[in-house]
């Protein structure tokens, strides 16, 4: 019998950390854009910006005025779902979310962004209604990278979402037999796929 790639829970833990670390760094991998599910049963694609394997914490960026921010304020429970199609691994991360608008982590994330990326936070609030198709951006900034003076106002709308992961449901698809494990920061168990 051929040995599976995943024979121990430690291998699963290492696999999860490797996938999420790569996903935060490489925009070409599918796990770069997981689905973030809030407790109000809404869900949306977000860009994974960072994974801290020591703290099991994910970082996302968002507009502080977005509806998801209020949803997280009302109920912090979050699920993040990511599927690596070539690797045939699904991750379902369960935890709680925290929005930060001030502080060292927010300042660092803002400092690391380009003015093109920051431009997203300069326009109309996400979800604001419009009588025609709109980008929400001021017309003079469509397709243009704002300068430092023009971007200053955007900072107050910028927030980070930190997800403290409490449990990960790891699922590996294989025609020789799927594998599935539930991991917590300190333990874990195999379960039936
Ligand atoms: C590929 C892709 C990446 C996205 N990345 C983000 C992101 O990093 N942060 C974000 O707030 N919205 C992102 N969005 C937009 C969200 O999916 C969503 O439409 C928007 O944030 C409003 O969500 P809400 O109404 O739940 O707050 C992205 C959308 C796509 C298609």
TrEMBL record:
One of its GO terms (molecular function) is FMN binding. It comes from the Bacteria. Gene3D superfamilies: Electron Transport, Fmn-binding Protein, Chain A (2.30.110.10). Residues 42-98 form the Pyridoxamine 5'-phosphate oxidase Alr4036 family FMN-binding domain. InterPro entries: Pyridox_Oxase_Alr4036_FMN-bd, Split_barrel_FMN-bd. This is Flavin-binding protein. Transmembrane segments: none annotated.
């Amino acid at each position: 019998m051929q040995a599976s790639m995943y024979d121990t829970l430690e291998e699963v833990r290492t696999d999860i950390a490797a996938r999420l670390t790569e996903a935060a760094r490489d925009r070409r991998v599918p796990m770069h854009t997981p689905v973030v599910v809030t407790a109000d049963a809404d869900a949306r694609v977000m860009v994974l910006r960072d994974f801290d394997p020591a703290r099991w914490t994910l970082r996302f960026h968002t507009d502080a005025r977005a509806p998801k921010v209020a949803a997280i304020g009302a109920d912090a429970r979050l699920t993040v779902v990511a599927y690596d199609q070539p690797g045939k691994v699904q991750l379902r991360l369960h935890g709680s979310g925290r929005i930060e608008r001030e502080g060292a982590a927010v300042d660092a994330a803002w400092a690391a962004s380009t003015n093109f990326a920051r431009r997203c936070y300069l326009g109309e609030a996400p979800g604001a209604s419009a009588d025609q198709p709109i980008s929400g951006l001021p017309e003079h900034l469509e397709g243009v990278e704002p300068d430092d003076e023009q971007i200053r106002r955007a900072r107050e709308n910028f927030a980070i979402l930190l997800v403290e992961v409490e449990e990960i449901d790891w699922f590996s698809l294989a025609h020789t037999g799927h594998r599935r494990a539930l991991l917590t920061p300190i333990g874990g168990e195999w379960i039936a796929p």
